[in-house]
Amino acid sequence: MSRYAEKALQGNQLAGARLIRLLEEGDPEGIEGLKILYPHTGKAYVLGITGPPGAGKSTLVDRIIGEFRGRGMKVGVIAIDPSSPFTGGAILGDRIRMQRHATDDGVFVRSMATRGHLGGLSKATGEAALVLDAMGYDVILIETVGVGQDEVEVVDLAHTTAVVSLPGMGDDIQAMKAGILEIGEVFIVNKADKPGADEVVKQLTVMLEMRHYKPGDWRPRVLRTVAVNSEGISELVEAFLAHRQHLQESGTLADRKEKRELHFFRELVKEMAYERIFGALGGNGVLAALLEDLKARKIDPYSAAEKLVGGLSCHL
Ligand SMILES: Nc1nc2c(ncn2[C@@H]2O[C@H](COP(=O)(O)OP(=O)(O)OP(=O)(O)O)[C@@H](O)[C@H]2O)c(=O)[nH]1
Ligand SMILES: [Mg+2]
């Protein structure tokens, strides 16, 4: 029985933080804890916020926390990417920006490094989200810099994805990864106190109109905010909740959850099977011989893999 799981289930933040750390380190105790927590998960609404460095994501998150708290909802935050050139480290920046919630029991902020996770960033984030979910947070906000494939995968964990842009991004919007544009359900033009916001709103609107929609599809919304002044935040949260409702009513939410669990399961099977196979073959010379043949190009990788896997006996 995990020392931390029971306490985390009661909402103890220290125990929750400890569990997340154990999971990040790949510690078996973390996994044992997660097994206990798992039946209590599946309730939280997961919201991803992505956008370029310095767009104001953390400031937005801070204000969004306030808005959800005002509606009586508990909020967990996972802030990813400590290495923004803008703020010289999001971990410090996020602590400062979200500090006013530090004494609120209904808010739990966890920063997470981009690199150095054994099974990848999206797995680590997914596990942290499960812990927060079991702890009883109604909303889980994931803040991530939208650049690499890793980050796009993180956003895949979310039920609603918000993409942040800012004035002066004209050309960047054109160049914005199609992937990011396609996954967005709510588009935020932050720093609308600066000149050029209208133009970005217009560009986004035009690009979104070019997408193909079927009847009943969610129509992405474009909203402007001034996070530093809390302007546009309640409208933003309304848009998130409208999207959540759309997901529920269309049955998409259940679909997404199911897909996510299946994906997670498959990834775990891959990981465990890989370790099993290489662990078992490491000592018996078969693998070493194959690797030698590969190096000498006596065998191609396809045939080598077929030979290896074909030689396994399955005990199901
Ligand atoms: N003028 C203006 N400044 C803003 C607004 N929102 C945020 N800022 C400022 O923009 C800077 C970056 O804000 P952050 O919230 O740290 O941005 P971020 O996207 O989280 O940054 P990283 O996590 O480092 O990528 C800070 O100095 C904020 O005070 C806004 O609406 N208007
Ligand atoms: Mg930030």
Q: What is the residue-mean pLDDT, rounded to a whole number?
A: 87
Structural class: alpha/beta
Write down the domain tally.
3
Point out poorly predicted stretches: 84-90
CATH topology of the largest domain: Rossmann fold
Small molecules bound in the structure, each named once: guanosine-5'-triphosphate, magnesium ion
Q: In this structure, how is the largest beta sheet organized?
A: 7 strands, parallel
Q: What is the percentage of strand-forming residues? A: 5-15%
Q: Give the termini distance in whole angstroms.
A: 28 Å
CATH superfamily of the largest domain: P-loop containing nucleotide triphosphate hydrolases
**SSE sequence, one letter per element:** HHHEHEHEHEHEHHEHEHHHH
Please report the total strand number as a whole number.
Answer: 7
Written account of the structure:
The chain has helices at residues 5-9, 13-24, 28-37, 57-70, 90-97, 121-134, 149-155, 170-175, 178-183, 197-209, 233-250, 252-282, 286-295, 301-310; strands spanning 45-51, 75-80, 107-112, 139-145, 160-165, 186-189, 221-224. It has 316 residues and is an alpha/beta fold. Helix 2 (13-24) packs antiparallel against helix 6. The longest helix is centred in the last third of the chain and has 31 residues, at 252-282. The protein is globular, with a radius of gyration of 22 Å. The two termini are 28 Å apart. The chain binds guanosine-5'-triphosphate and magnesium ion. Guanosine-5'-triphosphate binds at residues 53-59, 84, 86-87, 90, 93, 97, 145, 190-191, 193-194, 226-228.
